[in-house]
Amino acid sequence: MSDEDKKWTDFSDDEQYPAWNKEDKVGEVLEGILASKRLGVGTDNLNFYTIEEMGGEKVSILGRKIVNDFLGSMPVGTEIKIEYLGKKEPKGQGRPYHGYKCQYNKETMPGPDLAKDIVIDV
After folding, report:
1. Entry pTM
2. Which of 57, 59, 51, 58 is CA-nearest to residue 76?
3. Which residue from 89, 115, 85 is spatially nearest to 100, judged by alpha carbons?
């Protein structure tokens, strides 16, 4: 098959979607399909995840520790749900962190069988 016969789609590292910034609203939920992962971006090695919401709109979420632990382990194509729990005080010493409740739909997950809900609260 020649290049002319293939249906190529351009990908741009500069393609950006509106950011999901709900850290000011406890209880806000992001729900949709994990559409893509961009790992190790820039000199700070940041991770960005694109979620396609049920209405078809795509949003990006920056991978904070808890989000990275969750979305980093999810295959693209999995239906996910992330609820912002607010700023949490650490158990012991340390600085406050952003808490999230992370869940996925097992039926949409391509790949290995994992627990039904993943809640990471460090």
Report:
1. 0.73
2. 51
3. 85
Sheet holding 29-41, edge to edge: 58-62, 46-53, 29-41, 79-88, 97-104, 117-118
Higher pLDDT, 22 or 81: 81
- Distance separating alpha carbons of residues 100 and 9, to the nearest angstrom: 34
Q: How many other C-beta atoms lie within 10 A of the C-beta of residue 102? A: 21
Q: Which pLDDT belongs to residue 2?
A: 63
Q: Which conformational region is residue 111 in: left (phi greater than 0), alpha (psi within -120 to 50 degrees), or beta?
A: left
Cα(78)–Cα(97) distance, rounded to whole angstroms? 26
Given a contact cutoff of 8 angstroms between Cβ atoms, the answer to whether 38 and 48 are in contact is yes
Structural contact between residues 78 and 34, judged by C-beta atoms closer than 8 angstroms: yes
